[in-house]
Automatic annotation (TrEMBL):
The chain crosses the membrane at residues 123-143. It comes from Salegentibacter salarius. Residues 52-114, 145-179 form a coiled coil. Residues 1-20 form the signal peptide. This is tRNA (Guanine-N1)-methyltransferase. Keywords: Coiled coil, Membrane, Signal, Transmembrane, Transmembrane helix. SUPFAM superfamilies: Bacterial hemolysins.
Length: 193
């Protein structure tokens, strides 16, 4: 876009330089006509006598040339005005294009997460933050699991020991009950006899 504007400005200035050179060439034309008139005039007592028709022709040529220069100046001014307008339009287009480019770059650099736009850096920080929180949560749950698993193993071990003690106690109690039952039976048998 900048190359287009640069090329346009270069073209405008080169056209103005060429036009200025044409104007200089035509101004030499009037000077040549004056020189011709002076050279073709006669001398009389130290004065130059100029032919009236040649003087009128010079006046008409000068008026015509001045009018041509005015017309050329108006054309150049209108050309300059149109070129200035075109430059202004190009600058406006450039500003719009730069604004669009800025907006597109912002959209390209932004990532929408949960409906909210984030820059890539913020998004990466958020994602790594979430990953970090999840890793901490995983480590916490692993710790809790190992702690609970150790507690459960200890409780099972105690339960097994308690069951063994209870089985041993029950066996002793059963044995004692059987012994007492036999002793009672023996006493009953002795009493009957």
């Amino acid at each position: 876009m900048r190359t287009i504007i640069f090329s346009s400005l270069l073209l405008i200035f080169s056209v103005n330089v060429l036009t200025a050179q044409d104007s200089l060439a035509t101004s030499n034309f009037i000077e040549d006509e004056f020189d011709n008139l002076i050279e073709s005039s006669n001398n009389y007592q130290g004065y130059k006598v100029v032919d009236y028709d040649a003087l009128i022709e010079l006046r008409d040529n000068t008026k015509r040339h001045v009018q041509d220069l005015k017309n050329e100046l108006q054309e150049e001014q209108s050309t300059i005005a149109s070129q200035n307008e075109e430059i202004e339009n190009l600058e406006n287009q450039l500003a719009e294009t730069q604004e669009d480019l800025k907006r597109v770059n912002e959209e390209k650099d932004a990532i929408k997460f949960l409906g909210m736009p984030f820059s890539k850096g913020s998004y990466m920080a958020l994602m790594w933050g979430i990953v970090g929180v999840l890793i901490l949560a995983l480590l916490f749950f692993i710790y809790k699991f190992k702690n609970s698993n150790a507690t459960t193993k200890e409780a099972r071990h105690r339960l097994n020991e308690t069951e063994k003690e209870f089985d041993a106690y029950r066996a002793k109690a059963l044995e004692k009950e059987q012994r007492l039952g036999r002793m009672l039976q023996d006493e009953k048998n002795k009493a009957k006899e």
